[in-house]
Amino acid sequence: MGVNKTIIVSNRLPLQISINGDKLNVTPSVGGLATGMKSVHAEGNGVWVGWSGITEEDLDKNLKSKVNTKVKEAKCRAVSLTEDDINDYYLGFSNRTLWPLFHYFLEYTEFEKHQWEAYKRVNEKFAEVILDTIEDGDTVWVHDYQLLLLPKLIKDKRPDVTIGFFLHIPFPSYEIFRTFPWREEILSGMLGADLIGFHTYDYERHFLSSIKRIMRLEVNFNEISYYDRIIKVDSFPMGIDYNKFHKASLQHNNPNTEISELQKRLDSHLKEGKDQKFILSIDRMDYTKGIPNRLRAFEYFLNQHPEYKEKVRLVMLAVPSRSGVPQYQRLKRETDELVGRINGEFSTVSWTPVWYFYRSLPFENLIDLYASSDIALITPVRDGMNLVAKEYVATRTKQDGVLILSEMAGAAKEMNEALLINPNSFENFASTLKRALTMPLEEQQSRMKILQKRLKRYDVEKWASEFLKSLDATNQMQEVVVSKKLTSEDENEIVENFKKAKKRLILLDYDGTLVGFKDNPQDAKPDNKLFKILDDFEAQPNTDLNLISGRDKATFEKWFTQKPYNLITDHGVWKRENKKWTALEILKTDWMVSIKPILETFVDRTPGTFIEEKEYSLAWHYRTADPELARIRTIELNTVLTSMVANNELSILKGNKVIEIKSSNVNKGRAANQLFMKEDYDFILIMGDDWTDEYMFEAAPETAHTIKIGYTKTKAKYQIKDSIRVRELLFKFT
After folding, report:
1. CB atoms within 10 A of CB 552
2. Cα(544)–Cα(301) distance, rounded to whole angstroms?
3. What sign has the CA pseudo-torsion 476, 480, 484, 485?
């Protein structure tokens, strides 16, 4: 086995493959991700998994073999996709559902079930290739919105593998994301990762809000507790290959460098008159980029400031994108019309206000445009990051020039020295453009100097290494977290000890341990499978089975009336033995009349909450409440109650989405203690999931086998994932 490797996964391989007869031409891609991952892939022990760009239908057996050989030589693995896959998974679901939805264009978003099925199918194809490539100790780094389901697909099969996921587009607010029909599946897919990265804190915050509201998971700062794992969420603003752009610009400005045809044209126009200025706009032709808005705003500027006619030119490069999609065709048509209208209205014999290029340009020509433009106008209506803004800054070798940047671009969060604008405000646009055109050179250089220093320091390689460093730290944290994880060896040892024992005591919590949590507590009644497990325990000789719960006596009596199990309810107030109930504690209830009205006001003010009135306690449940509001209300309620219970020998228990007020003399530990002293047990098993079960773990003898369900800090010796795993374990005893 070789050195541990990093498996990079994206929709496309970092290769351009073209077929000419039976010959293949393979060249490296020059995109942002390919550049960013170059050091991880080429210089490290990396493997890149993705689609080759050629569908199965275009490859015969011979060509397919050649493609795979070339791909492997480039340290890549190809995922085989059909034309249907590309149409439904990529052009369909990825770009007609996820892309518009995540960019807040609900009006363009389609929810087609057959495209969703294709999306799932292709994610599974990717998983197959990755699982075939993984060796022990490898790390997987999955990229972008086309592969949101992939982390879970890998984690389910290989829970030992460290997985990172990075989303290169915005994550929308909860109000947008909740409209998505398959929202739980998407979030579950992402939660397969150990570290989830976004460009900005805003996207991270939106994601965590959806996790709390839709998945109902606990979030502590930027950490999600998910079964027996902690998933970290963080922001890593992606950089560019700063030196590549800066050096290219220095070379461009070198007098010995041959001047391109485009540069000659640019120079001739700059010489035409005094104070000629170029305003640069570079985007993909995409509705998220705000191109029509920008043109209308530029038209507004020329009307407001006629003194700039024949002095400024908007040089607009729009790179073709998804030209087969109707929305993009409409956008192209609208852009063409607007350019035509503005040029028709304002042009003179020697001056055209908008130079419009609908094509992609080679790298050298991009440098021509960057180096020649006094102002860069980058005004998307929504953008994950926007690297063009950073590329412009990197090319300004004299530290002059002004960057006008939309507040809606992710890059705005780290480029405050740019002039930030609301792309929807024409007035803001016009006044900011005027400010940029009149900005003194000293101010330009002061702003540009700070921007360049930051971008140079946090370039794309730094971005990649920071993410991997954080992923490694997350992995080390997991090792600490799961240090008590119940292994199959531990299970076998506990079962063996059970079989050898002469006298056994079994203490099992109910909710969250034997059954999963339900929004309505009454829906968590025992099923036949559970009865089977408990009946088998009850039939074992020399075995005392006890269900110990915070549930009220009446509910347990109703559920288990026909069963002989020993029951302890109300956290240890009542005990049923041989089907007879006795009070373990004598308690007062007069305090309830003053506490209940307070809880009722909180129910009135907090939708999704309710009061459970037990014989000796009151519980305020907030299982279905909005998590953000619930968090505020629990703090508020806790503050109100603390001052009231102090003199009444009451305590406040914070359980799983419940606050319970009860006598401070009562807890599961006291009830368990009475059982420990009753007999000389040589085997004790205690299982529970809640904070209230910690009293039992604490009271248990050193020799007891104590098991916590789920991950939180615990005094138990072991932890296991969930109630499903509990049942699997208990089945082994019988």
Report:
1. 21
2. 84
3. negative
Determine the Cα–Cα distance for residues 450 and 393; give it in Å rounded to an integer: 10
Specify the DSSP element, H or E, that contains 220.
Answer: strand 219-220
Q: Which residues are catalytic?
A: 509
What's the number of domains the chain is made of?
4
3-state DSSP assignment of residue 234: strand
Orientation of helix 242-252 relative to helix 363-372, angle to 10°: 70
The answer as to whether 705 is a domain residue is: yes
522 and 642 co-located in one domain: no
Non-local (6+) Cβ contacts of 450 within 8 A are 417
Q: Is the pLDDT of residue 2 over 60?
A: no
Asked, for residue 475, whether it belongs to a domain, the answer is: no
The answer to whether residues 597 and 450 belong to one domain is no
**Between vectors from CA 207 to CA 203 and to CA 210, what angle results, nearest 5°?**
140
β pairing state of 277-284 and 195-198: unpaired
H helical segments located in 82-228:
83-85, 99-102, 113-133, 150-157, 174-177, 183-190, 201-214
Mean of the per-residue pLDDT values for the chain? Answer: 91
* Beta bridge partners of residue 683, listed in sequence order: 504
Question: How many Cβ atoms are within 10 Å of 182's Cβ, its own excluded?
Answer: 18
Average pLDDT over residues 518-535: 90
Co-location of 162 and 202 in the same domain: yes
* Close Cβ partners of 678 (under 8 Å, ≥ 6 residues apart): none
Using DSSP, state whether 518 is helix, strand or coil. coil
Look at 268-277, 297-306, 395-404, 690-699 and tell me which has the smallest mean pLDDT.
Answer: 268-277
Q: 159 in the Ramachandran plot: left (φ > 0), alpha (ψ -120 to 50) or beta?
A: alpha
Domain hosting residue 450, numbered range: 242-457
What would the 3-class secondary structure string for 562-594 be?
CCCCEEEECCCCEEEECCEEEECCCCCCCCHHH
| Among 646, 633, 648, 623, CA closest to 601 | 633
pLDDT at position 1 is 42
Among the listed residues 1, 323, 302, 13, the one whose alpha carbon sits nearest the alpha carbon of residue 137: 1
Which residue's entry shows tokens 């706009």?
281
Which among 200, 235, 270 is the end of a domain? Answer: 235
- CATH number of the domain bearing residue 710: 3.40.50.1000
Q: Residue 3: its pLDDT value, please? A: 67
Amino acid at 255: P
pLDDT at residue 480 in the model = 61
**What pLDDT digit, counting tens, does each position of 697-713 carry?**
999 999 999 999 987 77
Q: What is the pLDDT of residue 439?
A: 96
For residue 139 the two structure tokens come to 């790390």
In 3D, which of 458, 456, 445, 28 has the Cα closest to residue 243?
456
The Cα 211–Cα 188 span in angstroms is 9
Q: How far is CA 553 from the centre of its chain?
A: 42
Q: What is the mean pLDDT of residues 383-394?
A: 95
pLDDT in tens, 203-242: 999 999 999 999 988 888 889 988 778 899 999 999 999 9
pTM: 0.83
Residues 6+ apart with CB under 8 A from 269: 276, 313
- What is the enclosing helix (H) or strand (E) of 549? none
Helix (H) or strand (E) holding 172: none
- Give 56-88 pLDDT, tens digit per residue: 888 877 788 888 888 888 899 999 999 999 999
Cα 612 to Cα 729: distance, rounded to the nearest angstrom: 31
Q: Angle formed by the axes of helices 723-733 and 528-539, to 10°?
A: 30
Bridge-based pairing of strands 580-583 and 574-577 is antiparallel
pLDDT per residue as tens digits for the range 597-655: 999 999 998 998 999 998 888 999 998 888 888 888 998 998 888 878 766 778 888 88
> What span, in angstroms and rounded, lies between the C-alpha atoms of 394 and 448?
9
* Mean pLDDT computed over 687-698: 92
Answer whether residue 472 is part of any domain: no
d(CA 487, CA 491) in angstroms, rounded, equals 6
